[in-house]
Amino acid sequence: MASSRTLLLALAALAPATNAQNFGGSGRAADDFTYVQPLNTTILGGYGHSPAVYPSPNMTGTGGWKDAMAKAQEFVSQLTPEEKAWMVTGAAGPCVGNIKPIPRLGFNGICLQDGPLSIRVADYASVFSAGVSAAASWDRKVLYERGFAMGEEFKAKGAQVALSPVCGPLGRSAYSGRNWEGFAADPYLTGVAMEVTIKGHQDAGVQATPKHFIGNEQETQRNPTLDESGTNVIQEAISANIDDRTMHELYLWPFANSVRANAASIMCSYQRLNGSYGCENSKALNGLLKGELGFQGYVMSDWGAVHSGVPSIESGLDMNMPGGLGAYGMDPTLGSYFGGNVTTAVNNGTLQESRLDDMIVRIMTPYYHLGQDKDFPTTDASSGVLNTFFKKKDWKPEEWNMTGESSRDVRGNHGDLIRKHGAEATVLLKNVNKALPLKAPKSIAVFGNDAGDITEGFLNQKSYEYGTLAAGGGSGTGRFTYLITPLEAVKARARKDAVVEQHPDRLEQHDRPLEPHSPEVCLVFLKTWAEEATDRKHLSVDYDGEEVVASVAKFCNNTVVVTHSSGINLLPFADHPNVTAILAAHYPGQESGNSIVDILYGDVNPSGKLPYTIAFNGTDYNAPPTTAVNTTGIDDWQSWFDEKLEIDYRYFDAHNISVRYEFGFGLSYTTFELAELKAEALAQDIPAAPAAEPVQPGGNPALWAPLYNVTVEVSNTGDADGATVPQLYVHFPDSTPAGTPPQQLRGFDKVLLKKGDKTTVSFELMRRDISYWDIVSQGWVIPAGEFTLSAGLSSRDFRATAKITPVKA
Ligand SMILES: *[C@@H]1O[C@H](CO)[C@@H](O)[C@H](O)[C@H]1NC(C)=O
Ligand SMILES: *[C@@H]1O[C@H](CO)[C@@H](O)[C@H](O)[C@H]1NC(C)=O
Ligand SMILES: *[C@@H]1O[C@H](CO)[C@@H](O)[C@H](O)[C@H]1NC(C)=O
Ligand SMILES: *[C@@H]1O[C@H](CO)[C@@H](O)[C@H](O)[C@H]1NC(C)=O
Ligand SMILES: *[C@@H]1O[C@H](CO)[C@@H](O)[C@H](O)[C@H]1NC(C)=O
Ligand SMILES: *[C@@H]1O[C@H](CO)[C@@H](O)[C@H](O)[C@H]1NC(C)=O
Ligand SMILES: *[C@@H]1O[C@H](CO)[C@@H](O)[C@H](O)[C@H]1NC(C)=O
Ligand SMILES: *[C@@H]1O[C@H](CO)[C@@H](O)[C@H](O)[C@H]1NC(C)=O
Ligand SMILES: *[C@@H]1O[C@H](CO)[C@@H](O)[C@H](O)[C@H]1NC(C)=O
Ligand SMILES: *[C@@H]1O[C@H](CO)[C@@H](O)[C@H](O)[C@H]1NC(C)=O
Ligand SMILES: *[C@@H]1O[C@H](CO)[C@@H](O)[C@H](O)[C@H]1NC(C)=O
Ligand SMILES: *[C@@H]1O[C@H](CO)[C@@H](O)[C@H](O)[C@H]1NC(C)=O
């Protein structure tokens, strides 16, 4: 037994476990070969097996990285074997992830910090709007400004790497606990948001880390279940089984934008993909990411997502975070799959040193490219104090260069931006009887447990009953230095005109008329929590919010409801005649109260649009998370993405299902009209398949070539100045393979127009925008025949159409 185990180990080490072996087992380390079972096609149900793609492509420096790459290569040439191992392995230290300094080479190390809306482990830093809010702005300028300002704060705190932004989850399931960290349930809008946010972060000098690659569409069973010893796997993590076309047209799409934006790093995900763990899936990392998309940066693991050494490295993983073993990889005293094992593997010939060198060159190229070798601020010592990721005994502060000023205030004037961004992202869903904007009401009553002060200190780290919500929980949250509540902002704004009656609670005795007379307006603030590591149980507002609205609306015929929510809420009270207005404000960040008051009083005309669909019933949504797997087989957690492209509006539209508020919907205090949709061809004799040009970051550059310039006239036809978002949807011709959604977003732009004004907006349709992924040729193909283009003010409100025939039938 012992000798056969040794033999298997040696074989596995020499020829790293292929993904084919991994499926049906675990895709785990060679030393966990016990779990490697033969491929069982019955379980696979026809698809779901991850092909082996080796070797891991070397970085080439294409796409503008060559100068920095030369510096990185020079750096690598000076490293000892041990230093090389530590360059790819996280260590305990002051940040949530740390690469050790090498003082000998003047290298201060690399500090990696959460997260997608704030530098989380920090004092005197801002909490920006969450991804879902930023996406609801549908505004490239807001997205860029936010990305840039966040980047400035990470840099000023001495963090070279921001673990941001998020496009996985994309929003396959309405219930996923992390949808709010990402942007929209649509790859196009999310792709633009990723690209612009990454440019913002990196223009500010900080490395962006798009995450989580890929298929991380639910939280339930995202990690394996271990036995009591914490080492043996009882059940493997969920496997997201995704067919090739769906992968390309939905989940990979925004990562392609991210790579094209020259993202420094990409974080691989916890769960399995076609049976093989996200951080050792060679098809995903070597094949899709480094091969097809030409990714030049480094693949970093999610925290504790590494389950093997050499097999992960051969599959394309470049950096193990946070480096150690134990739960979430946070115990360096237990050793590491990387670290010393990497040195051993090179020494015993299992791992080619050139692969290790490529890993470090990939890690150091962005560092030089962004000038992080010059005058980069040292890590703020306060981060080390606040960091609970590592036990203080496991690292020595004197080994890290934290010589700068401690507790630096890096917020600048970002509060003003956050206030503006929050207002611009607020979605007005209902507005009857001219309820909004408020016209200096003389009496206001404020209700709801989301109205008042927070009661759990600096963090929105857990769901709690009393206090407003401006962020969700987990690694994607922020640490508030202050949080303007709706109640305080309403009181401040109303002071000169109005009486404000306060009920910032949950369900009180609201079944009586207010004395001495009814308030002119009743503002009800409701909240909905979501956090990493669990999925949402329902799509209602939390804490009996629907009952709160009902009890207020019973006596108040001008009830205005505001939700602070992670995303989708069903909003049954939208039918109530006394509910005159509804605003979805999502998670706006630290200026929450000011942002909503700017909207309520009309200082800012609402222009946010839904980045997802609100259905009538939770059961209307397809693709719920896979939960309640009651069987105990090691491999029983399987999530078949067999809805394919039919998520969110793509599904509702394909089946003509009525919804309450569709994707892209949002009202304004004025009205708009669209006319004269025109498409001008920018190329002649367009071939169905792109020319095979050398791969650049983002893939074949021909996919990004603009083929049509589409223009539409937008006019403000109402009586207020305001902004709106003309949206372009593409309907593919009948020759496209079955399963193509009836309409897909392929352009948008936010425009501000004075009342009575008119302008022309243009959208560039790129080759990828009018192609489908052809599984036979393994490439993007423009289908033959006539496309219809629709310009609308939502995904179900088209105002103008045009036809194009790029490729004749
Ligand atoms: C494959 O899986 C199916 C379903 O779990 C099982 O019935 C069958 O026995 C398995 N086949 C093999 C060869 O293990
Ligand atoms: C997943 O399985 C499908 C069907 O076999 C295959 O087309 C696709 O390439 C696989 N993807 C990955 C990442 O393994
Ligand atoms: C990467 O480059 C090294 C030389 O530095 C070479 O030996 C190796 O074969 C290359 N790997 C690939 C996958 O091209
Ligand atoms: C090497 O990896 C094993 C797990 O496979 C671990 O137990 C051991 O501690 C690691 N060695 C080092 C030096 O980190
Ligand atoms: C080489 O080292 C690696 C990492 O410690 C180990 O997993 C592997 O078993 C070793 N292989 C041989 C042939 O000694
Ligand atoms: C710490 O970093 C600063 C700024 O890069 C540098 O000037 C200083 O020499 C470093 N100190 C040590 C002890 O490495
Ligand atoms: C609406 O509010 C008025 C009080 O202004 C109340 O009389 C009426 O019953 C309410 N309507 C509903 C449907 O609750
Ligand atoms: C709402 O209620 C107020 C006071 O109760 C009343 O004056 C007003 O006419 C009502 N409005 C509507 C539209 O019913
Ligand atoms: C939602 O749908 C389910 C199943 O179709 C049904 O039982 C339930 O009553 C519906 N809920 C609402 C509020 O319509
Ligand atoms: C698991 O058990 C629960 C409770 O008995 C049941 O509701 C659920 O349908 C079961 N799940 C599956 C996949 O059989
Ligand atoms: C949806 O409605 C359209 C237009 O009314 C119709 O052409 C189409 O066949 C319907 N699709 C389904 C799945 O019912
Ligand atoms: C598209 O059309 C607009 C409006 O005519 C024009 O301003 C823009 O330059 C055009 N873009 C391209 C790429 O031709």
From TrEMBL:
Its main location: secreted. SUPFAM superfamilies: (Trans)glycosidases (SSF51445), Beta-D-glucan exohydrolase, C-terminal domain (SSF52279). It catalyses: Hydrolysis of terminal, non-reducing beta-D-glucosyl residues with release of beta-D-glucose. Pfam families: Fn3-like, Glyco_hydro_3, Glyco_hydro_3_C. Keywords: Carbohydrate metabolism, Cellulose degradation, Glycoprotein, Glycosidase, Hydrolase, Polysaccharide degradation, Secreted, Signal. Its EC number is 3.2.1.21. It comes from the Eukaryota. Residues 724-795 form the Fibronectin type III-like domain. Beta-glucosidases are one of a number of cellulolytic enzymes involved in the degradation of cellulosic biomass. Catalyzes the last step releasing glucose from the inhibitory cellobiose. Belongs to the glycosyl hydrolase 3 family. This is Beta-glucosidase cel3A. It comes from Apiospora kogelbergensis.
